[in-house]
Amino acid sequence: xxxxxxxxxxxxxxxxxxxxxxxxxxxxxxxxxxxxxxxxxxxxxxxxxxxxxxxxxxxxxxxxxxxxxxxxxxxxxxxxxxxxxxxxxxxxxxxxxxxxxxxxxxxxxxxxxxxxxxxxxxxxxxxxxxxxxxxxxxxxxxxxxxxxxxxxxxxxxxxxxxxxxxxxxxxxxxxxxxxxxxxxxxxxxxxxxxxxxxxxxxxxxxxxxxxxxxxxxxxxxxxxxxxxxxxxxxxxxxxxxxxxxxxxxxxxxxxxxxxxxxxxxxxxxxxxxxxxxxxxxxxxxxxxxxxxxxxxxxxxxxxxxxxxxxxxxxxxxxxxxxxxxxxxxxxxxxxxxxxxxxxxxxxxxxxxxxxxxxxxxxxxxxxxxxxxxxxxxxxxxxxxxxxxxxxxxxxxxxxxxxxxxxxxxxxxxxxxxxxxxxxxxxxxxxxxxxxxxxxxxxxxxxxxxxxxxxxxxxxxxxxxxxxxxxxxxxxxxxxxxxxxxxxxxxxxxxxxxxxxxxxxxxxxxxxxxxxxxxxxxxxxxxxx
Length: 528
Ligand SMILES: NC(=O)c1ccc[n+]([C@@H]2O[C@H](COP(=O)([O-])OP(=O)(O)OC[C@H]3O[C@@H](n4cnc5c(N)ncnc54)[C@H](O)[C@@H]3O)[C@@H](O)[C@H]2O)c1
Ligand SMILES: O=C(O)[C@H](O)COP(=O)(O)O
Description:
Elements: E1 3-6, H1 12-19, E2 23-26, H2 32-38, E3 44-47, H3 55-59, E4 66-69, H4 79-85, E5 88-90, H5 97-112, H6 115-123, E6 141-145, H7 149-160, E7 164-168, H8 174-179, E8 183-184, H9 187-193, E9 196-199, H10 213-217, E10 224-227, H11 236-244, E11 250-253, E12 274-276, H12 285-303, H13 319-324, H14 326-343, E13 347-355, H15 363-379, H16 388-394, E14 398-404, E15 414-421, E16 424-432, E17 438-443, E18 446-450, E19 455-462, H17 467-477, E20 482-489, E21 495-502, H18 508-516, E22 520-527
Helix pairs in contact: 1-12, 5-7, 14-15, 15-16
Bound molecules: nicotinamide-adenine-dinucleotide and 3-phosphoglyceric acid (3PG).
The site of 3-phosphoglyceric acid has 12 residues, from loops.
């Protein structure tokens, strides 16, 4: 029975989707060690930000195929370890955009009008109208750091509120900035000139402590800072000091370097204008339903053998591409598997050459499929589309891509793989014929025309009378049935390649006898 484990609160609609195809177990708040001890039973894991999916947990799994993050940030998943293990990681990049952007706007308004503290004061029976005079957002300058989905929506709403919006994002073009009505600025100016600064970027080694004491000192003393993105982007000790010393006028923080917020956090000792919420950015009914459905559908599809929409760790392999390239991917994988058996030994380089119609397609998926085939004899079930590039890389196999725009020999173009390694260079070319059938069209530059079959024998021999007959009778007398035979040669009576499709695998003893036949220089059994 397929089993899915859920370790964070997930909307029921997502659970219902998973229940169609799997047994769904809930272990909310499970410890790391308990998770590591039970993960071996599960095919899929569904989480939010509360579960840390560490390398140890991933390596304790044995049949885990997919980790679904019902939300955006995957910084709580060791994606590298998952990729190495061949586990797909998917998220929901857009499901909570509006929720997080609206929480940001709510934080900005709450800060400006002292809403939380005015509420507490009023509940205590006080009537402190003078104490809680605020600021308008209208005509104030907002600096948005990170102009992705959430940053862009915040900018849109802020523009509608009459704010002047500037932004910093090294990966956003001037055209895109104009489109979302944001004036691009450098980071220093943004902090120095803004009345409000809001962060909407991921936490990475480069962005950690992006807001430190130097940055805070550079801000206006009337400025307010909002972080509904990720903990760790702000040095919390420095922020506490900056607020206590009135270096800035306020902050609203939803995310923390350690969550849940620890009781010794310096932020809990701040007595000035500081609003804290417990990572609520995505906590709306709508967003929770969106992300749960989005991710559960992807988990269900992957468990059914279909592709995921938003995989984090297989770049370039969107479902549309996978669908349109199905026969091409199958050809590339088959050829990778074939050439690995013809090459034998250690391979240092794979050259992938696309010709004719193949040039029109994205090459990355074809390279990944070729590598998957190439490594599957060595790694068995462990190799998949997720980890093929990484596994090739860690084995020192470099990949060179080559596009040949010349008029193709075959109407549908061709794909050629060449390996360079311990046993010299080997090449295989293939094409897809009009009937959609895969064909191997050359082996080691010898022209052939073979449909790949489960068992094959590829020999090298001198082109002379009698060889084909000898080989045929050897196989026949050992009860190996030949389904088809093809000989490829470049010149008469020179070197030739023979490709036999056979119904059964070749016994080792028979292979030894074949190699001893006068004129046969090499014989490679192939299983596809
Ligand atoms: N508080 C919450 O509950 C909540 C909810 C959803 C998302 N988030 C977080 O909000 C953040 C933004 O999410 P998103 O969906 O907009 O992501 P996104 O990928 O659409 O946008 C992130 C943007 O950050 C930019 N960026 C990366 N490095 C940068 C740098 N050094 N300086 C400036 N910009 C940089 C990227 O170019 C990108 O445009 C993420 O960290 C996400 O995890 C939090
Ligand atoms: O990255 C995200 O999607 C947000 O941080 C939301 O996290 P949550 O799913 O734990 O609410």
